[in-house]
Design goal:
Elements (H helix, E strand, L loop, with lengths): L7 E10 L26 H11 L6 E5 L10 H17 L3 E5 L5 H8 L4 E3 L22 H13 L4 E7 L5 H18 L2 E8 L18 H11 L5 E3 L8 H10 L3 E5 L14 H8 L5 E4 L13 H12 L10
Parallel strand pairs: 1-2, 1-8, 1-9, 2-3, 3-4, 4-5, 5-6, 6-7
This protein binds iron/sulfur cluster.
């Protein structure tokens, strides 16, 4: 079944595996991290058990979402190997891995491409002024370092998801500048699948003392993003962070067409439970929108995959539950 109709909104039936919550950065809005050494790493056998359970469910995407071990830490190689092994395991069990593990070296990205159908990294905001505020103690948030990741993903032909974090001290012009940078890179490499527009939503752990990004502003940002971004990039919004049915519909009306990975828990925003599929359908229906599942790789990128990954993706596409995706 093709789902390319313009009245379709997609989502990815997903499950998030967190190899480790430890992170050497300290972004002040973070509700995810623990200090290095303070939380045990996820073992392969524990993940194996989880994945066995998931095989009985409708889950396709395994999102590997990790805190970062410092590139010069003696633990870096073991950290990277654990992520690689988890992806390999998920793939062997029939799932499609998508990794977002923060800043990676070119060699690490090249390795992970072998066991991921797509990868991701939020650009967040490019303005350097955040290095004096929310990113004062977050070396991975240097704008040029994050832009470099998007360039490497393009050079390596990795289908990529990126996005903006809204409401962390940027101006509107800063947002447009970040969107323009994504647009420029996509025009060069044609590798960006989706841009997430994620409103800052305060949580229990963060020290950043600022209100939530006003959801009433989100449709305007989406409409402007739709103007800036090339039409083959889908705009994604996290529905659990737009806590009002009418504003969620307004976001779709403004141009958002994807609701991201829906899993039991939002690891990045644990204070905001995911809205599950049936409820989302009921919210969208009055607006005339249909909700449809998608894979973590869009069909136009299938030819970038290795033989093994292509076979795994084909298996899911042949099931007929996942079709082409809306882009506008
Ligand atoms: S937001 Fe990401 S990079 Fe920043 S501290 Fe949290 S886990 Fe680390």
């Amino acid at each position: 079944m093709a789902i390319s109709d313009s009245d379709t909104v997609s989502y990815s039936p997903a499950y998030t595996i967190v190899p480790t919550y430890e992170c050497f950065n300290r972004c002040t809005y973070c509700n995810f991290r623990t200090a290095p050494g303070e939380s045990p790493w996820m073992t392969l056998s524990a993940v194996n058990k989880i994945l066995q359970q998931l095989q009985k469910q409708k889950v396709c995407e395994i999102l590997i979402l990790s805190g970062e071990v410092h590139p010069r830490s003696p633990k870096r190689q073991a950290w990277f190997q654990r992520i690689y092994d988890l992806c390999e395991l998920a793939l062997a069990m029939g799932f499609l891995p998508h990794t977002n593990a923060g800043i990676l070296s070119l060699a690490e990205m090249r390795q992970l491409k072998k066991v991921n159908v797509s990868m991701g990294l939020m650009l967040e905001q490019l303005t350097p002024k955040l290095l004096n505020t929310v990113h004062r103690h977050a070396p991975s948030k240097l704008p040029e370092v994050r832009l470099q990741q998007l360039i490497w993903a393009g050079e390596l032909q990795i289908p990529f998801t990126t996005g903006l974090l809204l409401g962390i001290g940027e101006t509107q012009d800063d947002c447009w500048e970040t969107l323009n940078a994504i647009s420029d890179l996509h025009k060069r490499y044609h590798h960006i699948q989706e841009v997430i527009l994620q409103p800052h939503s305060p949580g229990h752990q963060q020290s950043f003392n600022a209100p939530a990004f006003d959801p009433e502003q989100l449709p305007e940002v989406i409409a402007k993003a739709r103007q800036i971004l090339p039409p083959d990039i889908t705009i994604q919004i996290p529905p659990n962070l737009v806590n009002d049915d009418q504003w969620l519909l307004a976001c779709i009306q403004a141009g958002a067409r994807d609701l991201g990975g829906i899993s039991p828990r939002d690891e990045v925003n644990p204070d905001y439970p995911h809205i599950q599929e049936q409820t989302l359908k009921e919210i969208l229906q009055p607006g005339g929108w249909k909700l449809a599942p998608r894979l973590p790789i869009y069909p136009q990128f299938d030819h970038w995959l290795t033989h093994d990954l292509k076979t795994a993706v084909k298996h899911w596409r042949d099931e007929g539950l996942y079709g082409d995706y809306p882009t506008r």
